Amino acid sequence: MARPKLEIGTYGEIAVKEESPGSWRATARYRDLDGTTRLVKAYGQSESKAKAALKSKLKKRRRPGGVDAELTPDSTVAELLKHWLSVCESVCGRCAGRWPPGQKRGHLPLPPLR
C-alpha cells in the first residue's frame, strides 16, 4: 500500500547527516501551500543545530509569503483587498486615483450574500 500524502503545510520525518566534520545537514519533505511536496534543507554545526534550523525554516514556510507575510489563513476579505490594491499600485501604479466619487481606497461596497 502506498504511503499517504502529507497534509498541506506539514512535513515528514527529519533526516540528519554529517556532511563533513562540524557540518550537519537536516532534510525533510514539506508539502507547500500549492500542494507540491518539496525537499527542504538546513545546515548547522551540530545535529541538534541543523534540526533546529530546519524546524525554523519549515515554520516560516507555513505562512503564505514567508516571515513578512501580511495575509494569513485567518485574514479577512477586507485585508485581502487592501493587500491586493497595495500590490497593484506598487506594480503598475494604475489603481491610484481611480476610485468612484465618495469612495475611499479599500472601502468599496460589497454586494449582500444571498
Could you characterize the architecture of this molecule?
- The structure is a single chain.
- The protein has 114 residues and is an alpha+beta fold.
- It has two domains: 15-61, no CATH class; 70-114, no CATH class.
- Helices cover 26% and strands 20% of the residues.
- The chain has two helices and three strands; from the N terminus they run E-E-E-H-H.
- The protein has helices spanning 47-61, 77-91; strands at 15-20, 23-31, 37-44.
- A three-stranded antiparallel sheet has the order 1-2-3.
- It is elongated and about 60 Å long.
- It starts with 14 loop residues before the first strand and ends in a 23-residue tail after the last helix.
- The mean pLDDT is 78.
For this structure, the quaternary state is: single chain
The general outline is elongated
Global structural class: alpha+beta
Q: How confident is the prediction overall: mean pLDDT?
A: 78
Measured as a percent range, the helix fraction is 25-40%
Determine the number of helices (DSSP H or I, runs of at least 4 residues). Answer: 2
Please give the order of strands in the largest beta sheet.
Answer: 1-2-3
Instruction: Give the topology string: H per helix, E per strand.
Output: EEEHH
Q: Total strand count, please? A: 3
Q: Report the β-strand fraction as a percent range.
A: 15-25%
Q: Rg to the nearest angstrom?
A: 21 Å
For the record, give the distance between the C-alpha atoms at the N and C termini, rounded to a whole number. Answer: 45 Å
Runs in which pLDDT lies below 50 for 5 or more consecutive residues are: none
The biggest beta sheet, please?
3 strands, antiparallel
Number of domains: 2
